[in-house]
Amino acid sequence: MAFAVSDELLGTFVPIAVYWLYSGLYIVLDGLGMDDYRLHPKGEESKNIVSKWTVVRGVLVQQAFQIAVSLLLFTALGDESGTVRKQPHALHHTLVVPYAFGALYNHPLEGLILDTIGGALSFLISGMTPRIGIFFFSFATIKTVDDHCGLWLPGNILHVFFSNNSAYHDIHHQLYGNKYNFSQPFFVMWDKILGTYMPYTLETRKGGGFEARPVKLNQA
Ligand SMILES: [Zn+2]
User: Fold this and answer.
1) Is 80 strand, coil or helix?
2) pLDDT digits (tens, 9 = 90+) for 22-76
3) What is the DSSP letter of 185?
4) Which of 36, 25, 12 is nearest to 207 (CA)?
5) CA 198, CA 195: separation in Å to the nearest integer?
6) How far apart are CA 22 and CA 178, in angstroms?
7) Cα(202)–Cα(168) distance, rounded to whole angstroms?
């Protein structure tokens, strides 16, 4: 049992394991019904123009890139961690009804440039240790998967602490909303600063569940 895994290796692979475990939990919840808590009624995912398997394959490619870049970084820099989370872009927007496991679904090149480099920079600039990196990137992974879970569950502690949440990000995934609510995964500050903040109300949907509705704002 003397085999020791480095924090750098853990920082590379733990967030990926967390990604599939946490989104797997939402797949299980989805299978249990949850009709009272959905942001989109069941069956509406037929509006998504890609299949679930395409999403899974896309995410796996993305994570393969992350692993490759992360390991390259360690080799080049000695002790840096370059693991990652997602930001939304064109391919990501094929999901009008987000899937938890689709949080990382994106074009590999965009993911590589924006997220892998973004993740590596946040690691380098903040000066966090590889061990802290394991927790930070795992938490960021949990948060971004949660933002794509498509549910508004009572007692979700992430909803208590973050106004950036599954309803906020659902707006971003709608056809009318893809120029708004970009900020991911923690705060809404940049949307407010850059004028892309779309307020919304969370309304009860006839037939069960909820709907995030944008508030039309014309005050400049
Ligand atoms: Zn998204």
Assistant:
1) coil
2) 999 999 999 998 999 999 999 898 999 899 999 999 999 989 988 887 888 777 6
3) S
4) 36
5) 9
6) 25
7) 9
> Which residues are CB-contacts of 134 (< 8 A; sequence separation ≥ 6)?
7, 10, 11, 14, 15, 81
Q: Measuring CA to CA, which residue among 103, 208, 86, 93 is closest to residue 145?
A: 103
The span from the CA of 96 to the CA of 49, in Å, is 9
Give me the phi and psi of 211, to 5 degrees please: -145, 130
Distance 48 CA to ligand 1 centre (A): 13
What is the Å distance from ligand 1's center to 181 Cα?
A: 10
Distance 2 CA to ligand 1 centre (A): 41
* Token couple for 135: 């927790």
Q: What is the pTM of this model?
A: 0.84
Give per-residue pLDDT as tens, 66-120.
888 788 877 766 543 334 444 446 778 788 898 999 998 887 777 777 777 788 8
Three-state secondary-structure class, residue 211: strand
- Tell me how far the alpha carbon of residue 142 lies from the centroid of ligand 1, in angstroms: 13
φ and ψ at 96, to 5 degrees? Answer: -75, -30
In sequence order, the β-bridge partners of residue 204 are 210
